[in-house]
Amino acid sequence: MDDSKVKEQLIFLGMTSIDADILIKKAKNQNSSLSKAFVMSLLGLYMGVFFMLLIYISFSFNMNGEEFFVFNLIYIPMVLLALYFTSSIKKLIWSVKVLLSLNGR
After folding, report:
1. How far apart are CA 26 and CA 38, in angstroms?
2. What is the rounded CA–CA span in Å between residue 29 and residue 103?
3. What φ, ψ does residue 2 adopt, rounded to 5°?
4. Of 5, 28, 59, 101, which is the most exposed, with the fewest CB atoms less than 10 Å away?
5. Does the pTM exceed 0.85?
6. 37: closest CA among 26, 22, 48, 45?
7. Using a CB cutoff of 8 Å and minimum separation of 24, what contacts does 48-51 make?
8. How many domains, the chain?
9. Residues 92, 49: contact at Cβ < 8 Å?
10. Is the pLDDT of residue 40 over 80?
11. Can you give the residue range of the structural domain that contains 94?
12. d(C-alpha 61, C-alpha 55), whole Å
């Protein structure tokens, strides 16, 4: 696919023109796919979500029913509020949508 078509597709998905140009140039300079360059640019977001999931699993692994219920009542709303106020959920959903539309380019 031509760079201009890829750029148009990225702009259609909500990326600015400058960011699309930078992403295409970064993929060419690293000699990698556009999807890999996109994932590497948002690696901090993915690692943050993975870290929150890892904390949840490690704390809830050895809990009985009542402790697990109380932990869920406290932890899940706290994480959802933190993600909501930092706009990470929107960016995470948007980035997954972009990755699915790139299809390994």
Report:
1. 9
2. 20
3. -70, 150
4. 5
5. no
6. 26
7. 48/88, 49/88, 49/92
8. 1
9. yes
10. yes
11. 3-102
12. 10
